[in-house]
Specification:
Layout lengths: L7 H20 L9 E6 L2 E4 H28 L3 H7 L2
Antiparallel strand pairs: 1-2
Helix pairs in contact: 1-2
Length: 88
Amino acid sequence: MSQDIGGAPRIQVAITALLIVVGVLVLFVPAGDEGPVLVPVSEGRGLSAVDGVGAALLALGGTWLEVLVVRRLPYLALPPRALFGLGR
């Protein structure tokens, strides 16, 4: 991995944070505005396309952020106690 990282990690972290925030905001859409139920869970409850989009944005942003953190661990010079807390 190249040592010349410039501002790329900051931009990537900002994008992942934006994906997570947008995903949460999409999940806060009122039930009346979500549209038809695509996957019924129980009587009168289910997952709509809006729920799927919100969950996908959260999964994409969260996974990308986790990959960024794991790839940067060698450069962070964290003490062993902090690494233990991260599960490494």
